Structures are given as structure tokens and as C-alpha cells.
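Lab notebook, bench 4. Still working through the backlog of constructs that have no structural model yet. Next entry is a single chain of 329 residues. Request: give me the C-alpha cells for it.
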Amino acid sequence: MITPLIVGIIAIAYFFDFFNGFHDAANSISTVVSTRVLAPLAAVSLAALFNFVAFLVFGVAVAKTIGAGLIKPGVVDQNVVLAALVGAIIWDIITWLLGLPTSSSHALIGGLVGAGVTKAGLGALLFSSLNVTVTFMVVSPLIGFAVAFAIMAAMIRLFFRRSAHRVNRYFRRLQLVSSSLVSLSHGTNDAQKTMGVVTALLVSTGNLSSFVVPLWVVLMAHSAIALGTLFGGWRIVKTLGFKLTKMDPVHGFSVETSAASVIIGSSLLGIPVSTTHCVSGSVLGSGATLGVSAVKWGVARRIVWAWLLTIPASAIIAWLTYTVIMLFV
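Model written out:
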């Protein structure tokens, strides 16, 4: 039976999904806005559309990893899910206020880990899946860096004899495609995380007999993240699109193509990755082709510190939240 408390927790989960879109919209639109291919409103509208339709293209492998692959199913209950969501949301709000492009995905993972360990100790964790997820936290931006660097280096070799104006005019059109791919990949990987949490909650409370994501959970997750994207955060657009490196349409295309490739590949493997990490790594890789001095490494260092703090910070907030909840249960 779905009680009012469960309904409330599900609503909080979809608020997290909305804020995920709001917080991470910058990742999919920052390059296409900074290169002036699209105005901000047009960019977020296009991103929201592809965030929503992503459910028609990909499966739910990432949802299964989040909902049943990080902490033992027997540990999951409504208090653990609530504490995890609060931990993730509060950390997202803090980093949004600071204009830092951190990962909502890893904030949720940190929240689940913190709440699960608080309830049942380290034995609550499924270290095999958790190790893969944490490894890709480091590997995915490095792959994004390498792929974007390779694409941009190839573009420089192919078009170095042509005028910059002609090249950029051509890549302005291609950026519409590559930006849409980032939004599509963001929708499938990030929306699935909320699906996983909601489905885990329904299983743990006896409302589902097995971990099978219902269609209504899928549709609501994509709707929430699409709406969040539509209202997306301009603060983080400025950090990713304008502060890390100079960018024009050919660079924007290399960044978006690289990031989308990494995210889609990870989604098909069921690995939850951060759109933020993939895009940021790709921005640095593309910018590095202009020389080391072309990248503002001070800003990049600040972003990396925020990445490193995300899982422990959201875990601590979830630990505190779970402790408070249990005082009133």
C-alpha cells in the first residue's frame, strides 16, 4: 500500500530530479550558449525536449545499478531513501549557490552510501558496483578529455587551411546535433537515477515484488528532469561555458560529441556517470589543443575540489538527516 509518507518521499525524489535538471542543464547547454549558436532560452528548450524523449531510446540499466547495486536491498527502507535524497538536494543547492558544476548523480550516490552505512554499517555496501561507479567518477572525465582533444586535434588538421569564419559557420549547424546528443544522454543517465531510487522505495515497502521500473516512474522522472532543465541554472553555464577556456563552434562540437559518447556508452553498460564530469573534462580537452595557457587551470582546480567533496559531503548530510529522522521514529 502506498501511504501518504511514501507519496511524500516520491515527491521529494522527483523534486531532486527537477533540481538535477535545473542544476545540470548547464552541462548540456553551456557550450552551445557560449559559442552563441543558440540563445539561452532556445538552448534550454531544446535540451528539455531531448531530456524528455530519452526514455524512448535507452533502457533502465542505470536505474537498476542505483536502486539495487550500491547498497544491499534489505537495508533500503523509506528512511534511508529520504535521508539520501535530502543529502543530495542540500549539496546540490550549496554548489548551485556557489556556481560550481558538481555532480547531482554523485551527490545521490553519496547520500545513499551515507544513509545506508548509518543504518547498517559498512556491511550495507555492495562494493563491487560501488567501486566501478567511483572508478568511473575519475575515468569518465579523463576519457572525455582525451576524446575531445583527439576530435579537436583532427579538426585542426582537417581545416587549418580554411578561414575560421567558414569553419565556424559549418560547425554552428553541427553543434545543434551534438548539443542535442548531450541532452539526450543527460536525460537517459540522470533521470534513471531517480527511477532507481523510487523503484527501490516501492520494492522495500512491498508495493513492487521485484525490481522492475514501472512506466509511470519512467515518465515522471523524465518529465521532472525536463522541467528542471527548462528552468536551468545560468550560474553554472557561466563557469563551464565562459570561465574554463575560450570556445567557438568547432570547439563546442568537439566537447559535446565527446561528452555524449562517454555518457551514452556508460548508460548502455549500466554505469551511472556524471554529465558534469564528462562535459567539464571534454571542455578542458578541447581547450588544451590551443595550448596549456588557454585553459584557466585555477577554475578547473576549484571544480575538481568540488567533485572530490561531493560524495563525502552528501554522505555526511545524509548521515545527519538519518540520525535526526530516527529520533522521531
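Notes after review: The first helix runs from residue 4 to 34. The two ends are 19 Å apart (CA to CA). Flag for follow-up if needed.
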